[in-house]
Design goal:
tRNA(Ile)-lysidine synthase, 22% strand, cytoplasm, tRNA(Ile)-lysidine synthase activity, elongated, tRNA_Ile_lys_synt
């Protein structure tokens, strides 16, 4: 076993000379064997070893005895030792988390604090090959994505260094044998023998059956994990290129993309781009986000309806409108505003776009969609009101005998539904709609013999792609 673990450490570059290594030690077989193993190799690597032990407050006196046992072993083996008490039951009640999730959150927070305290290079944990096999099987049962089948990482960035799992190379049986060879008498958690939990059921009932067919099942699972991780690393980099190419970042909590651009890429990259979008928008991906949401997202992409909206966890909305998809949070949806624009003058809209007004002597026959020329009439139309639409807004349209609802103009011009409530409308002194900015100009008497005109110019904010943003 020792040679296997050493070869595994070398293969994955899990240690370097002179490193400070923190070791999570519960007193059980896995962590005690890990602590002993590091004691054996510390002179070879000139390691500074520190054992960390936690009383989670879940098994009363037994938890306290576990910590005391680890303390005594560390004294005997001349290892620096630090302990803490974590009130998991209280944290569980205050957060509504399950016992396991609450304990994990508090435990890793403590580990991170100690990594920074000691400026440690590595945090070593005792997960082994059977843990890897159980994790992959459990995720398969729970309808995971291919990425979930990667399982437990051998190493990952953590606080000031890396979290490493050298025992993924070996099985639980090998660890138990190691403890016997070196006279290690670990503590036992009675709950590990219960089969009511999914993981324990897999451990005691399913894995033994698989091991009958292949005694090295844990090695095959680890090899599968490593191959999938290499493939995923490459696909992730390709997906980041897609993200930076097609995703329009409106702000930190709002992105959009063109559906046709999105569908040009293989489905493997579409899926990963979807996850990059979520990682960009969520500070922490919520526990309630599942594979079902991914299925709903892709159903929305292919939905023939012009306007469809999905509710994701924590107030995230995913809206399809014609050819675009917008992802944004509900608290960003209410963007009603009202500004006064004098002449000359300038206003900046909430989205960063700018509208200017100046006097001009020239009447431009050919006007772009972002420019409108109005006669400087008496009485004047200005100061103008720049606002969002209101129920019942109508506009005089050139060529029509009467007015048309602003709502119907939006539909005819295929303005995405999610943009309509925040779209700028310019009205005159009588609150008559003069310009649906950048979309439709109202019917205005344009006397070209006038000596002076008002020129309105809309400078639409140029949205940026994903470059420079961490996806």
């Amino acid at each position: 076993m020792e040679n296997e673990v050493k070869a595994f450490i070398k293969k994955h570059d899990l240690l370097h000379e002179g490193a400070t290594v923190l070791i999570g030690v519960s007193g059980g077989p896995d962590s005690m064997a890990l602590l002993h193993f590091f004691c054996k190799i510390r002179k070879d690597y000139h390691l500074n070893i520190i054992a960390l032990s936690i009383d989670h407050g879940l098994r009363e006196e037994q938890s306290h005895q576990d910590v005391e046992y680890v303390r005594q072993i560390c004294l005997e083996w001349k290892i620096n030792f630090y302990e803490t008490f974590l009130d998991v039951p209280t944290y569980k009640r205050s957060t509504g988390l399950s016992t396991q999730v609450a304990a994990r959150e508090m435990r890793y927070r403590f580990f991170e604090e100690q990594m920074r305290r000691f400026q440690a290079d590595f945090l070593a944990l005792g997960h082994h090959g059977d843990d890897q096999a159980e994790t992959i099987l459990m995720r398969l049962i729970r309808n995971t994505t291919p990425n979930g089948l990667i399982g437990i990482p051998v190493k990952r960035r953590f606080a000031t260094g890396q979290l490493i799992r050298p025992f993924l190379a070996v099985s639980k049986k090998e660890i138990e044998a190691y403890c016997q060879v070196y006279g290690i008498k670990p503590r036992r958690d009675p709950s590990n023998g219960e089969t009511v939990y999914t993981r324990n059921h897999l451990r005691h009932n399913i894995l033994p059956l698989l091991r009958e067919q292949n005694p090295s099942i844990h090695k095959h699972m680890q090899a599968l994990s490593e191959l999938l991780r290499e493939d995923e690393s490459y696909l992730h980099q390709e997906a980041k290129k897609v993200f930076h190419s097609i995703v329009q970042i409106d702000n930190k909590s709002e992105v959009s993309f063109n559906i046709d651009d999105f569908l040009r890429y293989p489905f493997a990259l579409q899926r990963r781009t979807y996850h990059l979008i979520l990682n960009y928008l969520y500070d922490n991906v919520p526990e309630g986000l599942s594979y079902v949401h991914e299925q709903q997202f892709f159903h929305l992409i292919h939905n023939e309806k012009a306007n469809v909206t999905l509710d994701f966890p924590n107030g995230l909305l995913v809206t399809k409108s014609y050819t675009r998809v917008l992802c944004y949070f509900k608290n960003n949806a209410d963007l009603h505003y009202e500004f006064t624009l004098d002449v000359p003058g300038q206003i900046t809209l909430p989205n960063g776009s700018v509208i200017t007004s100046v006097f001009t002597d020239n009447y431009e026959e050919e006007q772009s969609k972002n420019v409108m020329i109005l006669p400087d009439s008496i009485p004047p139309q200005y100061p103008f009101l720049v606002r969002t639409r209101r129920p019942g807004d109508r506009m005089l349209i050139r060529g029509l005998n009467g007015t048309k609802k602003v709502k119907d103009i939006f539909i005819d011009e295929k303005i995405p539904k999610y943009l309509r409530d925040s779209w700028p409308v310019i009205t005159g002194q009588q609150d008559d709609v003069l310009w649906l900015v950048g979309v439709k100009k109202g019917k205005v008497e344009s006397d070209i013999d006038k000596q002076r005109y008002v020129r309105l110019h809309y400078f639409q904010k140029q949205h940026v792609g994903g470059s420079g943003q961490d996806a």
